[in-house]
Amino acid sequence: MLDPANVPAVEPDELLARYIFSDRHFSREKRRVKAGAFIPAPDGAISVTRHREATQQEVWQVGRAIARLRNSTLYARADVLSATCENWQLRSEAAPIHGNPNHANVVGWPMQDKARRKLIAEEIALAANFVPTPESEHRT
Amino acid sequence: MTTTLRGGSQTAEYIQQQLADQRRYLHKSAALGIEQVLRDELAETWEECSQPDWDAYNALPVTWETYRNAERFLLALPLGIQLPSIGAEPDGDITFEWHCAPRRTLSVSISADEQLHYAALLGPGRTCGSEPFFGEVPRRILELIRDVYTC
Questions:
Q1: What is the pTM (predicted TM-score) of this model?
Q2: Tell me: the pLDDT tens digits for B45-56?
Q3: How far is A60 from chain B, CA to nearest CA, in Å?
Q4: What sign does the dihedral B27-B33-B37-B39 (CA atoms) show?
Q5: Considering only CB atoms, which residues of chain B are within 8 Å of chain A?
Q6: What interface predicted TM-score (ipTM) does this complex get?
Q7: Burial zone of A67 (CB within 10 Å; 0-12 exposed, 13-18 middle, 19+ buried)
């Protein structure tokens, strides 16, 4: 994981993980993430975790820790390049938090235009790589 | 069955109600399936997403008004149309998704205040927009559903 005392800015070639805690946000049959997973909360940001300097195990550990904290189920994650978000005039900003120095926010969403937000989320979801949790892989 | 009937008279209202009842009756047919979607997937979405923070990212809850609008939207779909999968969005809207292939997909969301927002990827093209929902599925959305399955 990144050194909390020295967190660099997000680079375009960085992979960002969006954890999926709702089974409304992915299709098991087609093994793909749905756009809903990338639509921002009313605060106008989507919360992601940077892969930079993190092992796969560490990336999953962060997701599991959030699931425990929020009393939710971690189903999967969707990995997307920061550059994909930038193609849609969004910005990936480092936003380290306690326990996750790799935390970042994707901001710059057109919050006055719901249809446009949906379209951008569709394109990002299409470009994202859907990765089920290792546990759910064993179940299927 | 696509029916457009507007008018303020009691007769027009009576006929509109009769047509709606008949359409609902036909939707109950197992072959046509809308009732099944209502019972199962929409009800599941309500159950899973009607509490705040249902996505662990501070999502707003799906409200009863949104659920009722989603039910009306489903029942207003023409008979025999491809059925959508149902989801929800962090602002509390309910989403209907028609997906044929990665770039053949349409997402329509409905809100508590009867607004429809849609986005579609259709091959190299893309489109998005908003329409009010007055109890009938807008023609533009019906065209997009058809386009999604014209692979």
A1: 0.88
A2: 999 999 999 999
A3: 16
A4: positive
A5: 45, 48-49, 53-60, 85-91, 93, 95, 97, 99, 102-103, 105, 107, 109, 115, 117-121, 126-130
A6: 0.92
A7: middle
